[in-house]
Amino acid sequence: MTEKELCATAKKAMQMSYSPYSSCKVGAALLTKSGRVYTGCNIENASFTPTVCAERTAIFKAVSEGEKEFSMIAVAGGKDGKIESPFVPCGVCRQVMSEFCTSGFKILVVKKEEEYDTYTLADLLPSAFTSNNI
Ligand code: THU
């Protein structure tokens, strides 16, 4: 699975977004070290707080099926499903990534239909709080 293919899978996952409150459709595609891909979408709630982001949906799906080793994730999102600017993972998703991924974990953020930015987890969450701190 190439980076471009993973981004295309994230874009496709936007279609499943349940986002009646923000109208922001977000999709994620998580590549495991074993070569499997888990997709996720954001799932909103009338009470707002229970809303879960696309990235966490994908990670929790994977972990719940026994996968805990990941090499990269692609994220795509946009108001009304139109990708016009990057949807960079929120702080909570970065923290969840840091539970399972090393600092070199790649995060691809789609910014236009055919373009994406590449980050590492260390770029987005320097000085992470981890199990080493407990
Ligand atoms: N959202 C994600 O799914 N991922 C992100 O990286 C940022 C935000 C969702 C949560 C909410 O449903 C909507 O986007 C607006 O914040």
Describe the structure.
- 27% of the residues lie in helices and 28% in strands.
- It has helices at 3-13, 54-64, 91-100, 121-124; strands spanning 24-32, 37-41, 70-79, 106-112, 115-120.
- The longest helix is centred in the first third of the chain and has 11 residues, at 3-13.
- The mean pLDDT is 97.
- Bound molecules: tetrahydrodeoxyuridine.
- Residues 19, 22, 24, 26, 42, 44, 51, 53-55, 75, 87, 89-90, 93 line the site of tetrahydrodeoxyuridine.
In brief, what are we looking at here?
The protein is of the alpha+beta class and 134 residues long.
Secondary-structure element order, N to C: HEEHEHEEH
Residues in β-strands, percent: 25-35%
Bound molecules: tetrahydrodeoxyuridine
Mean pLDDT comes to 97
> What multimeric state do the chains show?
single chain
Helix content: 25-40%
Characteristic key phrases:
27% helix, 134 residues, 4 helices, alpha+beta, 5-stranded mixed beta sheet, binds tetrahydrodeoxyuridine
Helices and strands, with pairings:
Elements: H1 3-13, E1 24-32, E2 37-41, H2 54-64, E3 70-79, H3 91-100, E4 106-112, E5 115-120, H4 121-124
Parallel strand pairs: 3-4
Antiparallel strand pairs: 1-2, 1-3, 4-5
This protein binds tetrahydrodeoxyuridine.
Residues 19, 22, 24, 26, 42, 44, 51, 53-55, 75, 87, 89-90, 93 line the site of tetrahydrodeoxyuridine.
